[in-house]
Design a protein that fits this description.
about 120 residues, mainly alpha, about 80% helix
Length: about 120
C-alpha cells in the first residue's frame, strides 16, 4: 500500500514535495507514537536527552519536522520575509498538531479541522 501511495505522490508534479513532506512527518510521528520512549516528555526533555548522548524518537521528530518546515518554506516562498513567515507557520502547525496527539485520533481531527477551514 505504501508503495502505491509513493508512486502516486511522484506522479503529482505541482504539489509533490508538499505531499512527500506530509508523508514523512506522518511516518515519523507514527513511529514515535508506536515505538517512542514515553519516559522523556516535551521538547526540553528530548533536547536534554540529546545532550546526554541519547537520541529519542521525539528529538528525531522535532529535528526532521524542523528540516521539512525549512525545506517547504524555501520551496514555496518568494521573498525572504515570506520564507521566514512560512517556516514559522509550518513549524508551529506541526507543533500544534503534535500537542493534540495525546489520544488516538485527536491529531487527525485537528488536521482535518484546519484542512476544511482553509478550504471553505
Amino acid at each position: 500500500m505504501i508503495e502505491s501511495i509513493i508512486i502516486y505522490l511522484f506522479q503529482l508534479n505541482e504539489n509533490r514535495y508538499i505531499w512527500i513532506s506530509l508523508l514523512i512527518i506522518t511516518l515519523i510521528g507514527t513511529y514515535d507514537d508506536l515505538f517512542g520512549d514515553t519516559k522523556v516528555k516535551g521538547l526540553r526533555g528530548h533536547i536534554k536527552a540529546f545532550f546526554h548522548g541519547k537520541i529519542t524518537s521525539g528529538f528525531l521528530k522535532a529535528a526532521i519536522g524542523g528540516l521539512i518546515a525549512l525545506f517547504l518554506a524555501i520551496y514555496i516562498g518568494d521573498s525572504n520575509l515570506v520564507k521566514v513567515t512560512n517556516f514559522l507557520l509550518i513549524l508551529f502547525m506541526i507543533n500544534t498538531i503534535n500537542l493534540f496527539d495525546l489520544r488516538p485520533g485527536r491529531a487527525l481531527k485537528v488536521f482535518l479541522f484546519y484542512f476544511f477551514v482553509k478550504h471553505i
